[in-house]
UniProtKB/TrEMBL annotation:
Biological process, per Gene Ontology: plasma membrane organization
The name this protein goes by in its record: Otoferlin
Record organism: Papilio machaon (Old World swallowtail butterfly)
One term under GO cellular component: membrane
Compositionally biased intervals (Basic and acidic residues): 121-132
Residue ranges of every copy of the C2 domain listed in the record: 237-355, 477-625
Bias (Polar residues) ranges: 147-157
Main location: membrane
PROSITE patterns assigned to the protein according to its UniProt record, in alphabetical order: C2
Stretch list, region Disordered: 121-158
Membrane spanning residue stretches: 722-744
Subcellular location: Membrane
Keyword Transport: no
Classification via SMART domains: C2 (SM00239)
C-alpha cells in the first residue's frame, strides 16, 4: 500500500469516527429537544373522541369535521406565512444561540462520560455506543421526533422555526481562539519593537513599545535533505522555497464591515451602577463614533449596528473597537476595547474575509453576503493551489484527484433548482480540509464574542462584545448592501381581559350577624408590574365562593417577538435625563382577594399566565383543576400571540409551607389580543364603560354592603335567617298585647256593667 493510499485510509477512519460522534451528539440533542417540545402536551380535559375533537376556549359550538379541517388548514397556512414574513436576522441569531447552548450542554455530557470511563479509549467507546446504543439505531437517529402537540394544535411551532442550514455559528470566544484557524498566523507574526533597554518592569517596558514588525522567519538547511516530507503553507513543493505564495506587501484597499451585535456584562461607570455605552472604531487614522446613538443606563446593551470603513493594508492593519460611556458633563470614559488584526485575517488561507453560510440563498434573512459566489471561490482556491478547475457532475464534484459525493436528496439544501451548482460548491468549501496538501478548514459564518479590556486595568475583563468582521477588496466588484441587524422595533399590542365569573373561592370571613362563612371577592391583575394593576368591583357577601363581575381590563404594551419580552421605557427617577428601556417576561398575573373594610384585604390565590405558553382554559368550572398547571408535558398550551383570543376557566392557587399547591378558587376569563391598529378601529372601555359596554352581572340580592343598605340588611340578613323566629316572636307579642289590652280593659267594662252605664 502506497503512502497516499495509507493517508486516504486514515482520513476515512477519522471521518467515520467524527460522523459517529456527530451522530451520537445529534441523538442526545434530539432527545432533549423532544422533551422540550413534549412539554405541556396531553390533558385530562381531552375528550374521548380523539385530539382532533378538542376545541379551544369555551362556548364554542362543534362544527362538522370536514369544515373544521378546512378552517384549520387555512389558519395554519396563514400562521406559517406570517411566521415566514416575520423572520429576520435576529430570528436566526436567537436560534443559533440556542444551538450554542445545546452544544455546550452536550460537550459537558461527553466530558462527564469520558471521566466516568477513564480506562476506555475514545474510539472504542464511540464504536461501542454505535453498536449497542438504541439512540443511534432507533428512530431518533433519522431526525428529530415530532412532538404530539404539533398534531393537536395547528398553531404549534418550535421556538426557533429556523432550519439547521440557516443557523450561524456563535463562538463564546474570539475567532482567533478556534484551534483550526491557527490564530490566523500561518503567514505572518507580529514582533513588538522597543526603544531603549529592557528594565524588567512590565509597565515600564510597555511604554517603550514604538511599533511592531510583522513578518515570517524560517531557518532551514539548503539544499533540503533528501526524503523530506514537508510542504509550504500553500501545499507547494518546498524545494522551490518555503515562502512560495506569500502575498505581496503592495498596498491594497479594502472595504471593512464591522457588525456589532451587543455587549454583555459591562463594567458600571456611573454612580447608579449603570453605564451609557456607545461604540467607537479606530483603524489607522480613520475614526468612527456612534456617540449620538448611545444606549441609556444599560450594562447589556443591544447595538445592532454595521459600520463601514475603508482600510489600506499594510498601513491600517489593526482595528480597535471601543465601548465608551457617554457623560452629559465632561469627557466620555473608556469602558473597554478589543483589537483585531485585519491584515492577518485578510491574508489567511482560512479565508476569514467573509464567513461561509451552510446554505446559498440569494434573498431573505440568510442571503449570500460575499462578493464572490461559491463557484467563484472554489475556482479561485483551486487556481491558488495549482489544481485543475472543479468539475460538477450530478451528485458529485471533482476537485483535483478528490471526489466529493454530495447527497442531492437533501431538500433543505437543494430546494432551489436554480442554485444547485452554487450549493454543491458551497458544500465542497465546507469540506475543503479534505483536499490533500492544499486543503484547510475555511471560516464559516459566525458571531464571535470578544473580551473587552481597559489599558488602565490590565488583565481585568470589562465586559464582552458580540460582533463579526467582513472584508472585501476594493479592486473587485463590491458586495451587496450590508445585512440589516438593527434591533427589532417592538410591536404595539393591546390585551383585553374580561373577568366573567369566579367559583369555589375560599371563604375567609364570618358574617357579622349570623357567623356564616363568606367572602367579599374581587379580582385584580397586571402585565407590566404592580403599577399597572387593575381591579374589578367587589362581589359582596359571596356565600358559595361564586362571584360575578363582567369586568374588562385593558393593557397596552410593546412586545418583542424574537425575545418574547415586553419592552418598557420609563425614567428611573425624576432627575433622569432620558428614559431607560428594560425588557420583562410576557407574563399576566391574576389574583383573587377578599375585601375588608377596617383591615388590610386578604390574599386568597393567584395564577401566572405566560402569554407565550399558558395552559388552555377548561370549558367548565368542574373541569378546572390544579392538574392544568402541571409542567410534565401533559397539558396543551396556548400562545396568545398566535391564538389571539381564548376563553376558559383557570385555577387560583397558593403554595403552602410544604411547597404543595392548594386550590383556592377558579376564574372564568376571556383574553383577547389585538394590535394597536386593530384596537383603534374597535375601541373598548374599562370595566363596563363605553364604548362596547358589558352588561351588569346578575348578582344575588344578598350581595351588598350592609352598613350602606340598612333596609337590605334587615331584609337579607335578619329576615332571611330568622324569619320563623321573627314570625313566632311577632305572634307571641301580638297575643301578649291582646292579653294586656284584655287585662287593661276588663275592669272598666266590668264596673260599667255593674253600674248599668
Amino acid at each position: 500500500m502506497s503512502k497516499r493510499e495509507r493517508e486516504i485510509e486514515e482520513r476515512k477512519k477519522s471521518l467515520i469516527q467524527l460522523q459517529n460522534v456527530d451522530l451520537k451528539a445529534n441523538c442526545i440533542i434530539q432527545d432533549d429537544v423532544f422533551t422540550i417540545e413534549n412539554e405541556r402536551e396531553s390533558s385530562p380535559l381531552l375528550t374521548r373522541l380523539g385530539r382532533n375533537a378538542v376545541y379551544y376556549g369555551s362556548g364554542i359550538t362543534p362544527t362538522p369535521r370536514k369544515k373544521m379541517g378546512k378552517r384549520r388548514k387555512a389558519s395554519t397556512d396563514s400562521i406559517l406565512d406570517g411566521d415566514e414574513r416575520s423572520k429576520d436576522w435576529w430570528t436566526k441569531y436567537f436560534a443559533s444561540v440556542e444551538t450554542m447552548i445545546e452544544e455546550e450542554k452536550e460537550a459537558k455530557r461527553e466530558r462527564a462520560d469520558f471521566l466516568q470511563t477513564p480506562h476506555t479509549s475514545t474510539d472504542e467507546r464511540f464504536f461501542r455506543d454505535d453498536k449497542n446504543s438504541p439512540q443511534v439505531h432507533g428512530s431518533k437517529r433519522h431526525g428529530p421526533m415530532q412532538s404530539p402537540r404539533s398534531k393537536l394544535s395547528p398553531t404549534f411551532s418550535k421556538k426557533s422555526e429556523i432550519p439547521v442550514s440557516a443557523l450561524t455559528k456563535v463562538y463564546p470566544h474570539e475567532l482567533e481562539a478556534v484551534p483550526e484557524y491557527e490564530e490566523f498566523k500561518e503567514w505572518l507574526h507580529s514582533f513588538e519593537l522597543y526603544r531603549g533597554k529592557k528594565t524588567g518592569d512590565d509597565t515600564e517596558d510597555e511604554n517603550r513599545v514604538v511599533g511592531a514588525f510583522k513578518g515570517a522567519i524560517k531557518v532551514y538547511k539548503w539544499p533540503l535533505p533528501k526524503g523530506i516530507d514537508d510542504h509550504t503553507i500553500m501545499g507547494l513543493d518546498p524545494n522551490h522555497g518555503f515562502f512560495q505564495g506569500v502575498p505581496s506587501n503592495d498596498p491594497i484597499h479594502v472595504l471593512v464591515r464591522v457588525y456589532i451585535v451587543k455587549a454583555t456584562d459591562l463594567h458600571p461607570m456611573d454612580l447608579n451602577g449603570k453605564a451609557d455605552p456607545y461604540i467607537a472604531l479606530h483603524c489607522g487614522s480613520k475614526k468612527i463614533s456612534d456617540k449620538e446613538n448611545y444606549v441609556s443606563k444599560q450594562l447589556n446593551p443591544v447595538f445592532g449596528k454595521c459600520f463601514e470603513i475603508e482600510a489600506t493594508f499594510p498601513q491600517d492593519s489593526m482595528l480597535t473597537v471601543q465601548v465608551l460611556d457617554w457623560d452629559l458633563v465632561g469627557s466620555d470614559d473608556l469602558i473597554g476595547e478589543t483589537k483585531i488584526d485585519l491584515e492577518n485575517r485578510f491574508y489567511s488561507r482560512h479565508r476569514a474575509t467573509c464567513g461561509l453560510p451552510m446554505k446559498y440563498e440569494e434573498q431573505g434573512y440568510n442571503r449570500w453576503r460575499d462578493a464572490m459566489k461559491p463557484t467563484q471561490i472554489l475556482a479561485k482556491l483551486c487556481k491558488d493551489g495549482k489544481l485543475d478547475p472543479p468539475i460538477y457532475e450530478p451528485g458529485r464534484v471533482k476537485v483535483g484527484r478528490t471526489v466529493f459525493n454530495i447527497p442531492m436528496d437533501d431538500a433543505e439544501l437543494f430546494s432551489d433548482p436554480d442554485t444547485i451548482e452554487e450549493q454543491m460548491a458551497l458544500v465542497v468549501l465546507h469540506r475543503w480540509q479534505e483536499v490533500p496538501r492544499v486543503g484547510t478548514r475555511l471560516v464559516t459564518e459566525h458571531v464571535e464574542t470578544r473580551p473587552l479590556y481597559n489599558p488602565n486595568k490590565p488583565g481585568i475583563e470589562q465586559g464582552r462584545l458580540e460582533m463579526w468582521v467582513e472584508m472585501f477588496p476594493m479592486d473587485m466588484p463590491l458586495p451587496g448592501p450590508p445585512m440589516d441587524i438593527s434591533p427589532r422595533k417592538p410591536k404595539s399590542y393591546e390585551m383585553r381581559v374580561i373577568i366573567w365569573n369566579t367559583d369555589d373561592v375560599v371563604l375567609e370571613d364570618d358574617a357579622f350577624f349570623t357567623g356564616e362563612k363568606m367572602s367579599d371577592i374581587y379580582v385584580k391583575g397586571w402585565l407590566k408590574g404592580p403599577e399597572d394593576c387593575q381591579s374589578t368591583d367587589i362581589h359582596y357577601r359571596s356565600l358559595t365562593g361564586e362571584g360575578n363581575f363582567n369586568w374588562r381590563f385593558i393593557y397596552p404594551f410593546d412586545y418583542l417577538e424574537a425575545e418574547e419580552r415586553i419592552v418598557i421605557s420609563r425614567k428611573e427617577s425624576m432627575f433622569s435625563w432620558d428614559e431607560t428601556e428594560c425588557k420583562i417576561p410576557a407574563r399576566f398575573e391574576l389574583q383573587v382577594w377578599d375585601a375588608d373594610h377596617f383591615s388590610a384585604d386578604d390574599f386568597l390565590g393567584a395564577i401566572t399566565l405566560d402569554l407565550n405558553r399558558f395552559p388552555r382554559g377548561a370549558k367548565s368550572s368542574k373541569l378546572c383543576t390544579l392538574e392544568m398547571l402541571r409542567n410534565d408535558g401533559t397539558v396543551p398550551m396556548v400562545n396568545i400571540f398566535k391564538q389571539k383570543r381564548v376563553k376558559g376557566w383557570w385555577p387560583f392557587h397558593i403554595k403552602r409551607d410544604t411547597e404543595e399547591m392548594e386550590l383556592t378558587g377558579k376564574v372564568e376569563a376571556e383574553i383577547h389580543l389585538l394590535t394597536r391598529e386593530e384596537a383603534d378601529k374597535v375601541p373598548a372601555g374599562l370595566g363596563r364603560s363605553e364604548p362596547d359596554p358589558l352588561d351588569k352581572p346578575n348578582r344575588p340580592d344578598a350581595s351588598f354592603m350592609w352598613f350602606l343598605n340598612p333596609l337590605k340588611s334587615i331584609r337579607y340578613i335578619i329576615w332571611h335567617n330568622y324569619r320563623w323566629t321573627v314570625l313566632k316572636a311577632t305572634l307571641v307579642l301580638m297575643v301578649a298585647l291582646m292579653l294586656l289590652m284584655l287585662v287593661y280593659s276588663v275592669p272598666g267594662y266590668t264596673i260599667k256593667r255593674l253600674l248599668g252605664a
